[in-house]
Amino acid sequence: MQLSVLDQSPIKSGSTPADAIHETLDLAEGAERLGYHRYWLAEHHSSSGLAGASPEVLIGQVAARTSRMRIGSGGVMLSHYSALKVAECFRTLETLFPGRIDLGIGRAPGSDQLTAGALGLERFPDQIADLVGFVHGTLPPEHPFARVTAMPAGPTAPELWLLGSGDQSAMYAAHFGLAFSFAHFINADGGAEVTRAYREHFRPSAALGAARSSIAVFALAADTEGEARRLAQSRDLFVVRLYTGRMAPYPSVEEAEAYAYNPHEQAIVRHVRGRTVVGTPEQVKDRLLALATEYAADELVIVTITHDPKARLRSYELLSRAFELERREEPVP
Q1: Number of C-alpha atoms within 13 angstroms, CB side, residue 201?
Q2: 313 lies in a domain?
Q3: CATH number of the domain residue 36 falls in
Q4: pTM of the predicted model over 0.90
Q5: How far apart are the first and last CA of the chain?
Q6: Vertex 199 angle, CA 195 and 202, to 5°
Q7: Is residue 210 a part of any domain in this protein?
Q8: How many C-alpha atoms does 304 have within 13 Å on its Cβ side?
Q9: Tens of pLDDT, residues 34-60
Q10: Less Cβ crowding at N or C end of the chain, within 10 Å?
Q11: Of 196, 211, 208, 261, residue with least CA distance to 233
Q12: How many domains does the chain have?
């Protein structure tokens, strides 16, 4: 089973967005040493808790600091942009790092509704078709932009993925013949049925001959179950604030332990814990493999956030050992 990383560039309390970006670069280097297959950068806008607003910029920086992992977007929120411009950005990245670039696209705004309005929204299915055509140089002759070439042209192309937490994105992926990644860390309800329906309805394309799917899961491992659950309290408070319109930097464990949850917030915590995998490395491995089987997923994309960057890297290290990933050197200290 291949393991990959989705990094949202979290801003921890007491630090700055710049710190979060540099922690992303450090984690990517560690993930490569630990044997992870790909490293995806997320896109969020106007967020006080997540610093990654431009995955297309971070991808180049991460790829330059690594040599083996695939690097990509998880994902670019295509509705905000010109399909041609996205194709050009990622064709440039593919030229610089051939055979290593993923272009994951999403439909969600990646922001609050006000910011989404400022960014602008367009018709998503048409944009997918245009993006695929621009990336691969396969726009039909009757297309109004058929004579437009996304530069730099070349013999290879980014690997295209469609990301989603519901059935609509899965059906788009099946229709256009794209790989699909289900965001379990956002929504676990009905995810297995959605992913299996994607495989059932998949139509082979020039880019992808057979269905390929992954599942993105929030997972946190520590040397003991108690320590893992202690660290995960930060996520409880972070998500409660998010769900109640009080987005803030990622809290410390001490902040979370001191917080007095009201009954509504306690219900949110219970709900979120239902899609969170926390425990010892073997406990987390067993649950992740069960989810991969349930979702018929080819790959697991791990989202891990802790207030302490060392604890986050330690979690990825423990999972690397549990899954026996092929590491490039001894465990990161």
Answers
A1: 17
A2: yes
A3: 3.20.20.30
A4: yes
A5: 25
A6: 125
A7: yes
A8: 34
A9: 999 999 999 999 899 999 999 999 999
A10: C
A11: 261
A12: 1
